[in-house]
Amino acid sequence: MQRRTRYDIYMDTLETIRRKGISAITRISYGANLPVDRAKNVVNFLLRRGLLKEEEYGDVRGYRITARGGEFLQALQTVKMYTEADEIE
């Protein structure tokens, strides 16, 4: 089994948030298959680049994907599709 690249982790994180809606860090951690401390680092990286937006609902902090984050996720999926096609040939 190959290790995931940084971009695979970003893609898994964004896909989890897109699929679940507003997500707390533990839900993101489980969905992206990351320890909570690494999930926090990834979320902070994506927040700084405007790909996620932080929201508070009740006493819980959650994260939502932005339009720019959706575009980035789509671009990552396109690149992955082309790179996987090259590996098959």
Structure description:
The protein is of the alpha+beta class. The protein has a single domain (6-88), classed as Arc Repressor Mutant, subunit A (Orthogonal Bundle). Helices cover 65% and strands 13% of the residues. The protein has a two-stranded antiparallel sheet with strand order 1-2. 25% of the residues are buried. The mean pLDDT is 91.
Features:
Arc Repressor Mutant, subunit A, 2 strands, single chain, 4 helices, two-stranded antiparallel sheet, 89 residues
Give a count of the beta strands, DSSP E runs of length 2 or more: 2
Main sheet, how many strands, which sense, barrel? 2 strands, antiparallel
DSSP helical segment count: 4
Q: Note poorly predicted spans.
A: none
| Mean pLDDT metric | 91
Can you write the helix and strand succession as a string? Answer: HHHEEH
| Structural class by SSE content | alpha+beta
SS strand fraction: 5-15%
- Distance between the ends: 19 Å
Quaternary? single chain
**CATH architecture descriptor text:** Orthogonal Bundle
Q: Give the helix level as a range of percent.
A: 55-70%
Q: The CATH topology is what?
A: Arc Repressor Mutant, subunit A
- Domain module tally: 1
Q: At the first level of CATH, what is the class?
A: Mainly Alpha
Question: Mind sketching the topology for me?
Answer:
Elements: H1 6-20, H2 25-32, H3 36-48, E1 52-57, E2 60-65, H4 67-88
Antiparallel strand pairs: 1-2
Helix pairs in contact: 1-2, 1-4, 2-3
Short description:
With 89 residues, the chain is an alpha+beta fold. The protein is 65% helix and 13% strand. A hairpin with a 2-residue loop joins strand 1 and strand 2.
